[in-house]
Amino acid sequence: MKMLINVPESVVTDALRGMAAAHPELTVDADNRVIVRRDAPVADKVGLVSGGGSGHEPLHGGFVGPGMLSAACPGEVFTSPVPDQMVRAAAAVDSGKGVLFVVKNYTGDVLNFDMAAELAEDEGIQVAKVLVNDDVAVTDSTFTAGRRGTGATLFVEKLAGAAADEGAPLERVEAIARQVNENSRSFGVALSACSTPAKGSPTFDLPPGELELGIGIHGEPGRERRPMMTSREIADVAVDAILDDLRPRNPVLLLVNGMGGTPLLELYGFHAEVQRALTERDVAVARVLVGNYVTSLDMAGASVTLCQIDEELLRLWDAPVRTPALRWGM
Amino acid sequence: MKMLINVPESVVTDALRGMAAAHPELTVDADNRVIVRRDAPVADKVGLVSGGGSGHEPLHGGFVGPGMLSAACPGEVFTSPVPDQMVRAAAAVDSGKGVLFVVKNYTGDVLNFDMAAELAEDEGIQVAKVLVNDDVAVTDSTFTAGRRGTGATLFVEKLAGAAADEGAPLERVEAIARQVNENSRSFGVALSACSTPAKGSPTFDLPPGELELGIGIHGEPGRERRPMMTSREIADVAVDAILDDLRPRNPVLLLVNGMGGTPLLELYGFHAEVQRALTERDVAVARVLVGNYVTSLDMAGASVTLCQIDEELLRLWDAPVRTPALRWGM
């Protein structure tokens, strides 16, 4: 697999140098691997810190900015960042009002954010944590005990970030993050595996003519493999898998997310089928996002995330945000 | 090649249905294949209409909105839209101040926009046209007499769109579009070919271990094929090819554009190398955009576009824009 890189060892550092040059509104420390809002710490505001393995861009670095994350810590590709990065990020964004760690449910991330929380508290920073585990496809996986954290991460970071920007205290920001995660469910499919720079070849073998249902964001196996399906059929499977687990009574936020290698032309077409499937099942969609937000390098495929909302969450969704990847209202 | 579609015949219509559901701020006519700002025609404003083959998303539909295009006409994949679409778009956006057609230099597009301009003028709409032909890689190609239109299209649409929004008359909007095109140059590379839905397999054969320099946006052949190179080497080749043709004296706008299949992680790393190459050659960068904007379905690769600017063009670049793919300041 050919890649637009120098050497596999420098991929993350090179990308951070590129982010630094592209986004003067962020402070990007490529050596220590921390991306911070340039105006941090913002007085009297709870800090929001997330992070995880690289290879899911724009998650998380592309979600740093007013109205969303205060800082992000990228690890090596598909590898958890280390506690030092997280402590450094917490210290950079803490205004004295505390910091919320948004943690996707992968074993390495959970362990390292736990350790970082202890270290940060030793330094006098109040820390709360929220675990994102929205993927209905599998319980336990290659990298996870329990459900994986995938597309809902975007909703958690946006909605809790908006609450933090409004001046909510740590307990409230944490409660919103927890509510968003509990109200969110995801399901993804892969048409091709992804290739990591270190391995240089696909992470698993997906034969021509087959797709993998219930895929995660690291090329780990999903729920089952099937002969190739139409966009319409895939939308039905994804929506049914989600609604089997959470039947929304209220309108939802909908994320139709590309895994990286699927053209936007196909993704919009898939979105049309997801909308049809939701309409047929009497689920009302309040807001939509279609695009590549929580990716898996060059994997072809898509995921669907629903988040059941109330008036308060809708208001937080519509609140202004200004990050490299998500931007409106300012 | 597996695709997230229903049948190849409905790919564009399905995508337009998906766009319609995702973007209530646009009027998307999926049957007639015209995407229009919902508030069109805007009183006393020149209309900006573009279009071209589908498969380059978010170009052009993703650039419709305040501060950029008034309307876009998507053709079949890699196939020019027809004059009927363009006339319909012109009629929808004309406030009486006239319409500018932004035409990428491909034979079919040029012919059809010419015909549409005549038809629109017959209906009493004043029409001007600007041809975008920024690609320095090849003169004449599979689909073009003269140079191809690629990444500069984004600059033309943004800067002329900003001028139109400020109330500039048609002659002025046209002059700005022409100036932007004349001041812009692009060069692209492909690491893999793309696959069209109709063909279902790669449009050309690119062996493992080789890349194609000077690629266009349709999988048509480029300037030469070489053994695989590093990101650093590719940046040097692309920047030199551009600077051989246009040596900017002023600062530039820089677009580092992904062709669709290259992960954002790699694209940011490539951007770091392009910045280095420009610094070494004493080219000052005023503004940067890194992302997938003018794509070629699932092709892996990237292109570099420079646009030499003055204070007026910089001001127009910074002016507010609100479209699905480009959004700031409002």
From TrEMBL, chains A, B:
Keywords: Kinase, Transferase. It comes from the Bacteria. Transmembrane segments: none annotated. One of its GO terms (molecular function) is phosphoenolpyruvate-glycerone phosphotransferase activity. Residues 7-328 form the DhaK domain. Its EC number is 2.7.1.121. This is Dihydroxyacetone kinase subunit DhaK. It comes from Streptomyces monticola. The lineage of its organism: Bacteria, Bacillati, Actinomycetota, Actinomycetes, Kitasatosporales. The gene is dhaK.
